[in-house]
Amino acid sequence: MEIFRKQLSVVAFRFSASARRTVVVRRKGPGFLMKVAPPVTTIRSILSISSSSPISAAAEMTGIALESEAEMPVALKSTTAIAANVNGHSNGPASNGTHYSRRAPLPHQTNGHHTNSPSVNGYGHHSKVFDNGESPSSNGKWQPFLIGVAGGTASGKTSVCSKIMNKLGQNDLEHHERRVVTISADSFYRVLDDAERTRAHAGEFNFDHPDALDYELILNTMHTLLAGEKASIPVYDFVTHSRLPTEYINVYPADVVLFEGILVFYFPELRNLFKLKLFVDMDADTRLARRVTRDLKERGRELKSVLNQYTNFVKPAFEEFCLPTKKYADVIIPRGAENEVAINLIVQHIKEHLLPLASENGSPRRSMHELEAALPVEVNGR
Ligand SMILES: Nc1ncnc2c1ncn2[C@@H]1O[C@H](COP(=O)(O)OP(=O)(O)O)[C@@H](O)[C@H]1O
Ligand SMILES: Nc1ccn([C@@H]2O[C@H](COP(=O)(O)O)[C@@H](O)[C@H]2O)c(=O)n1
C-alpha cells in the first residue's frame, strides 16, 4: 500500500467504478498520514444516485467508506462571473486579444511517460482510452466528457461547479492549461425584442420557460466543444436582460465540460450529450431566500419584482419544466455545495476521466498516481 503525501489537510477517498473497496486516509498533523478503518456506509445516505448510474452500480457492489472534514468556504460567485472566470477571457475588442489554441501538458505529463507528443487527433494525451474501459467517443476520437448540472434557481449549481473546479485545482491554472471548464446556460438567454425587454424590466417576462433560451446556440456550442474546437459564447447582463454587445467568452477545448442551468436536461438532444448528469437539490424556501438576496445584490432587482417574478413564472416553470427532469439525473446532490461528500465523489469520478490511461502496463492505478501528483486532493486506495 502506497501512501501519498500531500500538503492539503483534506480527508479524501478513493472511489473507482472498477474498484471493489475504498480506503480512507486522514492527515494527522503535518507530514503524517494515518490509515483509518473505513466505516462502511451506504452511498445513498450521502447522495441519491439513480439506479442506472455507473457510480450507483459500483457503490451497490462496493460499500463505500467515506469521511469528511470541513473545508474553507469557497468564494461564491455569480453565474456569469464563474463562466467568465472559468473559461478565461472576455475577449471582445477591448481585451488584450490573447488567444490560446492548445492546452499545455499537466505537470505529470512532462515527467517522461506522458509527454505532450502529438497524436493522431492532434491532442496529445487525449487520444487515450478512458479508465472505465469505454472509448471516449463512439468513433474512437477524443471528445470532452460533458457533464450536465441541473437544479432549480439558486439551488447551488454554480457553487457546486465552482467547488468541483477548486477541488480539481483548475482555478489555480492558467486558462489555457485547464482541463475542466464550466459553462452556464445563463450565457444563452436569447435576445429580446423591445416589447419583450419592456416586459422583462417589469418582471413580466418568463425567463424560466425553455423558449427564453437560445437553444440553437447552446447546441452549436456543445457540438463545437465536442469537436475539440474553441467556442465563443455571449456574456449575459441580468440588469439589462441582454447580451453585452461587444463581449464574449472564449471557451477553449477541455477534457471535461460542466454545463449548468435550470433547464439543461429539458431538451432531449442536449440531455443526451451528457455523459454524467447531476441534479442539485435544495428546498424551495432556501432557494427563494437566496434568490432574493442575490437578485437584489447582483442582478439590480427590486424586492417586489423578484417576488412577483418568482410567484408568476419561476415557481410554476420550475414545477413544469425543471423538476420533472430530475429523473434523468445520474446523481442527485442534496444540500448543494454544502454536500462535501457528494462533491468529493463527483470530483473523484471526474479525475478518473481526466487520466491519461495508456501507461506502459495499461494500469489505471499508475495513472492515478500520476494524477495525484498533479492535483491537490489526497487520494489513496488499493
Ligand atoms: N451553501 C450556501 N450557503 C449560503 N449561500 C449560498 C450557498 N450556496 C449558494 N449560496 C448563494 O446562493 C445564491 C445562489 O447560488 P448559486 O450557486 O449561484 O446557485 P445557482 O447557480 O443554482 O443559481 C448565490 O448568491 C450564492 O452565493
Ligand atoms: N434576464 C433574466 C434571465 C434569467 N433570469 C432568471 O435566472 C434564473 C436562472 O439562473 P440561476 O442562476 O438562478 O439558475 C431563472 O430562474 C430566471 O428567472 C432573470 O431573472 N432575468
Automatic annotation (TrEMBL):
<dbReference type="GO" id="GO:0044206">
    <property type="term" value="P:UMP salvage"/>
</dbReference>
<comment type="similarity">
    <text>Belongs to the uridine kinase family.</text>
</comment>
<protein>
    <recommendedName>
        <fullName>uridine/cytidine kinase</fullName>
        <ecNumber>2.7.1.48</ecNumber>
    </recommendedName>
</protein>
<dbReference type="InterPro" id="IPR006083">
    <property type="entry name" value="PRK/URK"/>
</dbReference>
<comment type="pathway">
    <text>Pyrimidine metabolism; UMP biosynthesis via salvage pathway; UMP from uridine: step 1/1.</text>
</comment>
<feature type="region of interest" description="Disordered">
    <location>
        <begin position="361"/>
        <end position="382"/>
    </location>
</feature>
<keyword id="KW-0547">Nucleotide-binding</keyword>
<dbReference type="GO" id="GO:0044211">
    <property type="term" value="P:CTP salvage"/>
</dbReference>
<dbReference type="InterPro" id="IPR027417">
    <property type="entry name" value="P-loop_NTPase"/>
</dbReference>
<dbReference type="GO" id="GO:0004849">
    <property type="term" value="F:uridine kinase activity"/>
</dbReference>
<dbReference type="Pfam" id="PF00485">
    <property type="entry name" value="PRK"/>
</dbReference>
<keyword id="KW-0418">Kinase</keyword>
<comment type="pathway">
    <text>Pyrimidine metabolism; CTP biosynthesis via salvage pathway; CTP from cytidine: step 1/3.</text>
</comment>
<keyword id="KW-0067">ATP-binding</keyword>
<dbReference type="GO" id="GO:0005524">
    <property type="term" value="F:ATP binding"/>
</dbReference>
<keyword id="KW-0808">Transferase</keyword>
<feature type="domain" description="Phosphoribulokinase/uridine kinase">
    <location>
        <begin position="146"/>
        <end position="342"/>
    </location>
</feature>
<dbReference type="InterPro" id="IPR000764">
    <property type="entry name" value="Uridine_kinase-like"/>
</dbReference>
